[in-house]
Amino acid sequence: MMTLKVNGGDHRVDADPDTPLLYVLRDDLGLNAAKFGCGLGQCGACTVMVDGKAVLSCVTPLLLLEGKQVTTLEGLGTVTAPAPIQRAFMEEQAAQCGYCIAGMMMRAQAMLLRNPNPTDAQIRAELEPHLCRCGTHMRILRAVHRAARLMDTADATSERSER
């Protein structure tokens, strides 16, 4: 039995320490945004953030997560109050089938936390591990740029309100 910190809450999990995080998120915690794609860490559909860094949850065993914060797409925002990255992907209609999008959003979110104004080349390089067969790549680029602007606006607004 271990305690897993997910989306700001503590969850007691009774699973083998070698169990991939993806299985616990989906099967035990009911968080279904991260998808099983290849199971080999080659498609990116299972991407979540661990302590703010993009991680492939299908190949990350629980034993590596003791004391770390896991964030899934469900932890970023809600249907009524989506996070900037979620809002941007919706506004740009970046999802076609939607299977890869949660993972892409999580990797883009992690990138924007460390690089709030990425170039197209930086976004492409960051999202390179993700496979998308639907062909919405240009919309995805626009969505990441839009999210950066939305996050910048949100940061500026919160700074003004703190004064």
From TrEMBL:
Keywords, ordered alphabetically: 2Fe-2S, Iron, Iron-sulfur, Metal-binding, Oxidoreductase
Key word Metal-binding present: yes
Key word Transcription regulation present: no
Pfam families from the UniProt entry: Fer2, Fer2_2
Domain 2Fe-2S ferredoxin-type as annotated: residue spans: 1-76
Domain of life, per lineage: Bacteria
GO molecular function, one term: 2 iron, 2 sulfur cluster binding
Protein name: (2Fe-2S)-binding protein
Taxonomy of the source species: Bacteria, Pseudomonadati, Pseudomonadota, Alphaproteobacteria, Hyphomicrobiales
